[in-house]
Specification:
The complex is a heterotrimer of chains A (629), B (210) and C (250).
Chain A lengths: L5 E5 L3 H12 L3 E6 L15 E2 L11 H11 L6 H21 L13 E2 L9 E2 L5 H18 L3 E5 L1 E8 L5 E8 L5 E5 L2 E4 L21 H8 L4 E2 L4 E8 L6 E2 L3 H4 L3 E5 L16 E2 L1 H5 L9 H14 L10 E4 L5 H7 L1 H11 L8 E10 L2 E2 L27 E3 L17 H22 L9 H20 L6 H15 L6 H18 L13 H25 L25 H17 L1 E8 L2 E8 L15
Parallel strand pairs in A: 1-2, 1-10, 2-6, 10-19
Antiparallel strand pairs in A: 3-5, 4-5, 7-8, 8-9, 11-18, 11-20, 12-13, 12-17, 14-15, 14-16, 16-17, 20-21
Helix pairs in contact in A: 1-4, 1-11, 2-3, 3-11, 5-15, 13-14, 13-15, 14-15
Chain B lengths: L2 H4 L1 H29 L4 H14 L4 H25 L11 H33 L1 H5 L1 H9 L2 H28 L6 H30 L1
Chain C lengths: L2 E8 L8 E8 L6 H10 L27 E4 L2 E4 L12 E4 L6 E3 L2 E2 L2 H9 L21 H11 L6 H5 L12 H12 L7 H8 L14 H4 L6 H21 L4
Parallel strand pairs in C: 1-5
Antiparallel strand pairs in C: 1-2, 3-4, 3-5, 6-7
Classes of the chains: A alpha+beta (629), B mainly alpha (210), C alpha+beta (250).
The structure holds flavin-adenine dinucleotide (FAD), protoporphyrin IX containing FE (2 copies), iron/sulfur cluster (SF4), FE3-S4 cluster and FE2/S2 (inorganic) cluster.
One protoporphyrin IX containing FE (HEM) binds next to helix 2, helix 3, helix 4, helix 5 and helix 7 of chain B.
Chain lengths: 629, 210, 250
C-alpha cells in the first residue's frame, strides 16, 4: 500500500489553520507547525472586524461594491480575479465561521450585526465585540482540534520552520525545523508545504503594531531558497498607534471617527503638559490642511501628515516622534460608551486616562501588503478564480504554497480595513484546496526522494546554529534589532526618498555584516531564545533589504508607497469633467502604464533582483483614480 | 455511554453532597434543637425529650441508617476528596478560598470531635446505664469544666461553618445558584443560618450549666 | 539613580533545581513587566554584577490577547505584558506558573490545557468547513452578550494557577475548560452534542472536582464569569443525571 500523502502547514494563524483544515477534510494527513500554541498566533490581535457583503442594513450594499472598494483601495495593484472571488466567497466564509461557533455580535433580531469601517460607504464589517480576530482564530482552532482528535492533523507546536527541502528537480518535498526546547533540528517529509507564517512588522522593530513573532523570517527563508517576494514596498502604516518601548499598540480609527482631534504644540520648545497648553498655542494640522475631512482623513493621508509635522516641520511633541490624539473635549460618558475598548487598552498599557489627558500617538508599521508571490488560475467563465486549480496560491517553487499575510495576494498597494482577516481565511481555504489537488496529481512516492536532500539540509541548518552559538562576536542581537527598526521606520517609512533609500540599503548591508558577528551571551543548548532570535534577526535584515530595494525601484506614489518627488495629486476643487481633472486623469493613466505592475524580488547573489509582472485587470479596468473626497 | 450511570464518580460525589445535607445536616439541626430543650430543666429534657427519643420504635435502625452510616459515608468520602487539592493557604487571600480550606479543616476537626463527643455520650451510655438515665446530669458535669466547654464550643462552631458553607457550595454544585448575585444572596442566607444555629447551639450548651 | 528591582525565580531546564536571581534596571516611566524583561535580556547582569544567561519567558501579542505571557508576579498570576511596573511593589518577584511543568525560567508547558479541551470536546461538530449556503441559527442579543464573555478565554492558565483543585498531580480539567463547555453548549448547533460534553465533565476530573474556592474568577484577566459557568453547568449536569437515571435510555 502506498503511504498516505501528507502536507506540512507552517503557521497556525487564520491562514494556516484554514489550510490545515481543508487539507485534512480532503483526506490527507497534515503536520501543522507553529512557533507556539497556535491559539497564541497574531491573528488574535485583530479587533475591528471582517468584511463580507450581507447587505442587512438596507443600504443596497453589493458584492460588486466590495470588489470595487478593495481594488480601488489597493490602487488597482492587486490581481483582480482572486479579489473578485474573495469578495464573492466572503459571505459564505463568514457563515462557516458562524457555524463553527464564532460569537459574532448580533442585531436585535438575532442576525449578525454590521459596522462601518474605513474607506467604504456601506456597513459591511462583521465583528465579534472588540475581539474579532481572536474569535475567528478560536473558531478554526476548535475545528482543527477536532481533526486532531480524529488523527488527521498532527501539531508540532514549539517548532520553528528553518528551511525547505528541495529535491533534485527543485520541487519542495519537506522542511527542516527546529524544536524550540531541545534545539534539535529535524527534517520532515511532505508532498507539499504551505507557508502561512503571517506578517513581517517586526522588520520595523518595536515601531509596529504586530506581535513580536511577526518577523517575516520564515517567508524570507523560502525567498532565499528561490521563492519570489512580490510588492514588498507596500507597507501600511497605521496613523494612530500608542507609543511604547516594547511595541506600539493600535488605537483604532474609531477614536478619530468619534471626534478625536490630532494636534501638536505650535512651539516645538513648548514643554508644558498638554492640558496646560491653551487652544491658540496648538496646531490642529489635519483640520488646517484638510478642511473638509479634518481628522477623519484616510489612514495613509493621516500618516503622511503626521510624518510631515514631525520630520519636516520639527514639531513632534517634546522633540520626539509623537503627536497628541485628544479626546478630552468630548463628553466622558459618550466616549466611554463608544470607545470603551480603546480607552481600556490605553489605560492598561499607558497608565493614564485618555478621558482626561491626550493620548500620545505616532504612525506605526501595521500591515504588509506584499509577501511571497503566489499564482492563481482564472476561470474564464466567471472571471474569478478557478476553484480547485492547483495553481491557486502556489509559489514559484513547485509543491510550495503560501497564504495569509505572508503572501501578497489581495490588497494591492493598500489594504482596506477589515479585509485582511478575510484574505487570511479565504487564502488559507484556497491554498488548502489547491494543495489537495496538487497531491491528487502527484505520481511519485514521497519515500523515493533520496535521504541525502534531507540530511544535507539538516547539516546546513546545524552549521548555522553552531556558528551562532560558538561565535564570540561583539554584537548584541536585541540592540541590532532596535537599530534595524529605527533605520526602517525613519528611512523606509511613511514617506520615501530615493537618496535615503539608497543610504538605507547601504546601512542594511552593514547591519547584515554585523548580524554575522553576534554574541549570544549564552551557551545553553536548551530553549536558547537568543539563538532563535538571532536567526530571525538575520532574516529580518535581509527582508529589510528586499523592502528597501523594491521601494527604491518604484518611482511613483501608489497606495501606501509614497515618494513625494513623484507625487500626482488631484487638482483642488476639480471634479470629473473639469479639464484640470481630466488632465490629471490622463497623467494618472500614463503613470499606470509605467508602474501598474507587480514588483517581483528574487534572491540574487548580492541582494535582491527586482523585476516586474503585469497585473490582471480583467474585472475592473483602471479608469477611476482613487478619490476619497 | 451514560457516564453518570456507568461511571460512579459523579454519582458518588452527588451522594456525598446529598448526605452532608440531608441526614447529616438535618440531624445536626434536629440535634441542636434537642439540646436547646435543656433550658427547660433536667426533668423536661430527660423525660420529655430524651425519653421520647429513646422510646421510639426501631431506634437502633434509625440511629444506624439515618445518623451513623450517612455520617461515616460522608466523612469517609470527604477524606478521599481531601486528598485532592493543594494547600495554598497563604497564597490566595480571598474569602471563599479561606472557606474552601476551612471546609476541609473543619471536616477533620468534626471527625475528631465526634469520636470524643459521641464516645463520651452515646457510646458510654451503652455500658453505663447511669449516663443514659440522666443525660442532663452527665452533660452538666462535663460542660461545667471550662476546657471541655470550649472544646464543645469549637466543635459546634466548626460543624456549623462546615454545614453552612457546605450549603452554600451545594447550591452551586447542584446548580441552584448560578449568577454572582444569586450566589451572594444565598451566601447571606447561609450566614444568617449560621448565626441562628450557633445561637441555638450555644443556648443549648448554656442550658445545661446555667 | 532610580531603578526597578527584580527577583526572578529561574530554572535552567525541567530537571534542574530552581534558584533566584536579582536584577536591577534603570527606571523608566511606563515599563510593563515584558518590556522590563526585554531590557534585562539585552544586558543580563545580576545585581551582584554577574553575567548570566538571559531570562527565558514567553510573550507574543503584547496586548493581553494571546495569553502567552502569564507568570506569577508578586504572588499573583497575571499577564506580564499588561502589568505596569509603576503599579507594583518592589522588588518585583517573578515566578513561573506553578501548576505546569517548567521548561525554562519563566516558561512553562501548558499543553495540558489543550489536551483537556479535547477531552471535553470543546468544538462544534460541523459537516465540514465548506459553504453550506446557510448560516447557523439566530442568536438573541442577550444570549450573545453572555456567550461573548466566555468566548474571550485565551487559555492563559491564570485561573488554573490559583485553583486549589488544579495541578500536575490532579485530573481536574480546571475552570477555563469547564467554561468552554458552557460556551459550546450554548451555541445553537453546539447544543446538539451537549450530552456528550456533559458526560465528559461528569467523569473524573470534571465538574464535581471543583471545590468552589472561586479564586479562578478573581484572577482571570479577561473577567470571564467562571463561577457562573460552573453554577450553570451544575444545573445542567443535575438535570442530565436525572435524565440518565430516570429518562429513556439511549
Ligand atoms: C493590531 C492589529 C489589528 C488588526 N486588526 C485587523 C482587523 O480588524 N481586521 C482585519 O481584517 N485585519 C486586521 N489585522 C490584520 C490581521 O490580523 C492579519 O493580517 C492576519 O491575522 C494574519 O493572519 P495569518 O494567518 O497570516 O498570520 P498569523 O496569525 O500571524 O500567524 C502566523 C503563524 O505562523 C507561525 N510561524 C511564523 N513563523 C514560523 C516559523 N518560522 N516556523 C513555524 N511557525 C511559524 C506562527 O506560530 C503563527 O502561528 C490587524 C493586525 C494588527 C497588527
Ligand atoms: C453543642 C453542644 C452539644 C451537646 C450539648 C450535645 C449533646 C449530646 C448528647 C447529650 C448526646 C447523647 C444523645 C443520646 O445518646 O441520645 C449526643 C449525641 C450525639 N451528638 Fe451531640 N451534642 C452537641 C453537639 C454536637 C455536635 C456539634 C455534633 C456534630 C455534628 C453532635 C453529634 C452527635 C452525635 C452524632 C450523637 C450520637 C447520636 C446518636 O447516635 O443517637 N453533637 N450529643
Ligand atoms: C456534622 C457533620 C457534617 C455535616 C453536617 C456535613 C455537611 C456537609 C455539606 C452540606 C457539604 C456540602 C456538600 C457540597 O458542597 O455539595 C459538605 C462537604 C464536605 N464535607 Fe462534610 N459534613 C459533615 C462532616 C464531615 C466530615 C466528618 C468530613 C470529613 C472529614 C467532611 C468532609 C467534607 C468535605 C471534604 C466536603 C467538601 C466536598 C466538596 O467540596 O466537594 N464532612 N459537608
Ligand atoms: S478563563 Fe481567564 S484565566 Fe482562565 S485561561 Fe481563560 S482567560 Fe485565562
Ligand atoms: S478556583 Fe477552582 S475550585 Fe472551582 S471555583 Fe474555581 S475552579
Ligand atoms: S504577550 Fe500576549 S497576553 Fe501578554
Amino acid at each position: 500500500m502506498k503511504r498516505p500523502r501528507k502536507v506540512i502547514v507552517i503557521g497556525g494563524g487564520l491562514g494556516g489553520l484554514w489550510s490545515a483544515l481543508r487539507v485534512a477534510e480532503a483526506g490527507f494527513q497534515v503536520d501543522l507547525f507553529s512557533l507556539f500554541e497556535v491559539k497564541r498566533s497574531h491573528s488574535a490581535c485583530a479587533q475591528g472586524g471582517i468584511n463580507a457583503c450581507f447587505d442587512t442594513k438596507g443600504e443596497r450594499d453589493s458584492i460588486w461594491q466590495h470588489i470595487v472598494d478593495t481594488l480601488k483601495g489597493g490602487a488597482y495593484l492587486a490581481n483582480q480575479p482572486p479579489v473578485k472571488s474573495m469578495c464573492e466567497e466572503a459571505p459564505g466564509l463568514i457563515q462557516t465561521f458562524e457555524r463553527m461557533g464564532v460569537t459574532f455580535s448580533r442585531t436585535a433580531e438575532g442576525v449578525m450585526d454590521l459596522r462601518l469601517f474605513g474607506g467604504v460607504k456601506n456597513r459591511r464589517t462583521v465583528f465579534a465585540g472588540a475581539s474579532t480576530g481572536q474569535q475567528l482564530l478560536y473558531g478554526v482552532d476548535q475545528e482543527v482540534r477536532r481533526q486532531e482528535s480524529l488523527g488527521r492533523i498532527q501539531k508540532y507546536e514549539w517548532w520553528e520552520f528553518l528551511s525547505l527541502v528541495l529535491d533534485g528537480r527543485d520541487t519542495c518535498k519537506g522542511v527542516t525545523a527546529m524544536n524550540l526546547r531541545t534545539l534539535e533540528v529535524k527534517s520532515f517529509r511532505a508532498d507539499a508545504v504551505i507557508l502561512a507564517t503571517g506578517g513581517m512588522g517586526q522588520t520595523y522593530g518595536h515601531r509596529s503594531t504586530n506581535s513580536t513573532n511577526s518577523t517575516g523570517a520564515a517567508a524570507c527563508r523560502a525567498y532565499r531558497q528561490g521563492a519570489w517576494f512580490a510588492n514588498t514596498e507596500f507597507f501600511q502604516f497605521h496613523p494612530t498607534a500608542m507609543l511604547g518601548d516594547d511595541k506600539t499598540r493600535l488605537m483604532s480609527e474609531a477614536a478619530r471617527g468619534e471626534g478625536g482631534r490630532i494636534w501638536v504644540p505650535q512651539d516645538p520648545e513648548d514643554r508644558r503638559r498638554p492640558n496646560d497648553i491653551p487652544e491658540q498655542a496648538r496646531f490642529y494640522f489635519l483640520e488646517e490642511w484638510f478642511p473638509s475631512y479634518g481628522n477623519t482623513v484616510p489612514r495613509d493621508v493621516a500618516s503622511r501628515a503626521i510624518w510631515r509635522v514631525v520630520h519636516e516641520m520639527g514639531l513632534g511633541v517634546d522633540g520626539e516622534d509623537k503627536v497628541y490624539l485628544d479626546l478630552t473635549h468630548l463628553n466622558p460618558g459618550f466616549i466611554e460608551q463608544r470607545l470603551h475598548a480603546i480607552l481600556d487598552i490605553y489605560r492598561k498599557f499607558h497608565g493614564s486616562d485618555p478621558v482626561h489627558e491626550p493620548m500620545e500617538i505616532y504612525p506605526s508599521a501595521h500591515y504588509a501588503m506584499g509577501g511571497l508571490w503566489v499564482d492563481f488560475e482564472k476561470d474564464e467563465q466567471t472571471g474569478g478564480l478557478k476553484f480547485g486549480s492547483q495553481r491557486n496560491h502556489a509559489t514559484n517553487i513547485p509543491g510550495l504554497y503560501a497564504c495569509g499575510e505572508c503572501d501578497y495576494g489581495y490588497h494591492g498597494a493598500n489594504r482596506l480595513g477589515a479585509n485582511s482577516l478575510l484574505s487570511a481565511s479565504f487564502s488559507g481555504r484556497v491554498a488548502g484546496e489547491s494543495a489537495a489537488t496538487y497531491l491528487l496529481g502527484l505520481q511519485d512516492d514521497l519515500l523515493s526522494v533520496p535521504e541525502q536532500y534531507y540530511e544535507s539540509e539538516i547539516s546546513r541548518q546545524q552549521e548555522i546554529n553552531r556558528s551562532l552559538t560558538e561565535s564570540h562576536g561583539t554584537e548584541n542581537p536585541y540592540s541590532l534589532q532596535r537599530a534595524l527598526g529605527n533605520l526602517m521606520s525613519s528611512q523606509v517609512g511613511v514617506v520615501r526618498d530615493n537618496d535615503k533609500l539608497r543610504q538605507a540599503l547601504e546601512s542594511l548591508k552593514e547591519l547584515e555584516q554585523r548580524s554575522m558577528n553576534i554574541n549570544l551571551q549564552e551557551t545553553s543548548n536548551w530553549s536558547n531564545q537568543g539563538l532563535v532570535f538571532s536567526r530571525q534577526l538575520q532574516e529580518m535584515i535581509r527582508l529589510g533589504q528586499v523592502i528597501t530595494a523594491s521601494a527604491l525601484a518604484r518611482d511613483e506614489c501608489r497606495g501606501a508607497h509614497y515618494k513625494p518627488a513623484f507625487d500626482l495629486t488631484i487638482p483642488e476643487n476639480t471634479y470629473p469633467g473639469d479639464p484640470a481633472y481630466e488632465a490629471y486623469r490622463q497623467a494618472w493613466k500614463r503613470q499606470n502604464e509605467d508602474w501598474l505592475k507587480t514588483t517581483i524580488a528574487s534572491a540574487g547573489k548580492d541582494g535582491p533582483t527586482i523585476t516586474y509582472q503585469p497585473v490582471d485587470l480583467s474585472v475592473l479596468p483602471p479608469e477611476e483614480p482613487r478619490d476619497y473626497r | 455511554m451514560q457516564t453518570s450511570i456507568h461511571n460512579t464518580h459523579f454519582l458518588l460525589r452527588r451522594l456525598h453532597s446529598l448526605l452532608g445535607l440531608l441526614p447529616v445536616g438535618g440531624f445536626l439541626i434536629f440535634h441542636l434543637w434537642e439540646n436547646s430543650q435543656s433550658r427547660f430543666g433536667p426533668a423536661h429534657y430527660n423525660e420529655q425529650v430524651v425519653g421520647w427519643l429513646q422510646g421510639l420504635n426501631y431506634l437502633t435502625l434509625l440511629e444506624i441508617f439515618v445518623i451513623a452510616l450517612p455520617l461515616l459515608l460522608h466523612a469517609g468520602y470527604g477524606l478521599l476528596i481531601l486528598r485532592s487539592g493543594h494547600n495554598e493557604w497563604r497564597r490566595n487571600p480571598w474569602l471563599h478560598h479561606r472557606l474552601y480550606l476551612l471546609q476541609r479543616i473543619s471536616g477533620i476537626a468534626i471527625l475528631l470531635f465526634l469520636l470524643f463527643h459521641v464516645g463520651w455520650t452515646r457510646i458510654w451510655g451503652i455500658w453505663e446505664p447511669a449516663v443514659k438515665a440522666d443525660l442532663f446530669g452527665h452533660m452538666q458535669s462535663i460542660l461545667s469544666q471550662p476546657p471541655i466547654f470550649l472544646l464543645y464550643l469549637l466543635g459546634l462552631l466548626l460543624s456549623l461553618i462546615h454545614l453552612c458553607n457546605g450549603l452554600w457550595t451545594m447550591a452551586i454544585s447542584w446548580g441552584l445558584t448560578t449568577s454572582v448575585q444569586a450566589q451572594r444572596r444565598w451566601f447571606l442566607f447561609c450566614i444568617a443560618l449560621f448565626v441562628l444555629l450557633s445561637a441555638m447551639g450555644l443556648h443549648g450548651m448554656l442550658g445545661f450549666i446555667l | 539613580m532610580k531603578t526597578i528591582q527584580f527577583q526572578i525565580r529561574r530554572q535552567d531546564d525541567p530537571y534542574s533545581p530552581p534558584y533566584w536571581e536579582s536584577f536591577s534596571i534603570p527606571f523608566r516611566k511606563g515599563h510593563n513587566v515584558v518590556s522590563a524583561l526585554m531590557v534585562i535580556r539585552e544586558n543580563p547582569v545580576t545585581r551582584e554584577g554577574r553575567r548570566v544567561d538571559p531570562v527565558a519567558w514567553e510573550f507574543n501579542c503584547m496586548e493581553e490577547v494571546c495569553g502567552a505571557c502569564s507568570m506569577v508576579i508578586n504572588g499573583l498570576p497575571r499577564q506580564a505584558c499588561s502589568t505596569l511596573v509603576d503599579n507594583l511593589d518592589q522588588p518585583i518577584r517573578l515566578e513561573p506558573l506553578s501548576k505546569f511543568p517548567v521548561i525554562r525560567d519563566l516558561m512553562v508547558d501548558r499543553s495540558r490545557i489543550f489536551t483537556d479541551l479535547k477531552r471535553v470536546r470543546a468544538w462544534i461538530e460541523i459537516d465540514g468547513a465548506w459553504n453550506i449556503h446557510r448560516g447557523a441559527p439566530r442568536v438573541s442579543p442577550e444570549a450573545w452578550k453572555e456567550n461573548y464573555l466566555y468566548s474571550r478565554c485565551m487559555s492563559c492558565g491564570c485561573c488554573m494557577e490559583v485553583c486549589p483543585q488544579y495541578g500536575e498531580d490532579q485530573t481536574f480539567v480546571g475552570p477555563a475548560t469547564l467554561a468552554a463547555v458552557r460556551l459550546m453548549n450554548a451555541h445553537p448547533t453546539g447544543s446538539y452534542h451537549k450530552t456528550q460534553r456533559l458526560h465528559a465533565i461528569m467523569a473524573e476530573g470534571g465538574l464535581s472536582d471543583c471545590g468552589n474556592a472561586q479564586n479562578c474568577v478573581r484572577v482571570c484577566p479577561k473577567q470571564i464569569p467562571l463561577t457562573t459557568a460552573i453554577g450553570e453547568l451544575g444545573r445542567e449536569v443535575t438535570l442530565q443525571m436525572l435524565r440518565d437515571l430516570f429518562g429513556k435510555s439511549e
